Input
Amino acid sequence: MSGRREELDLRGLLCPLPVIRVQDRVAGLAPGDEVIAVCSDPGALNDIPAWCKINGHFVLWKGERGGDYVVHLRVGAA
Output
């Protein structure tokens, strides 16, 4: 595992854009890297974890932080 951690500011984007931006970023990362998606769209708390499950990634935490909706995920093996 390389252990890189990146935060994506996805505030102001509505479905499906947060998922698309996470997908685009994850494509350039290695298994074990982590992405923290900070969103203003509450739907991201369901949409990003559903995308992770389909694509073999792991949700480490999801919830609210300071009025934002956050999903912290670890990149799985392709």
The chain is about 30% helix and 35% strand.
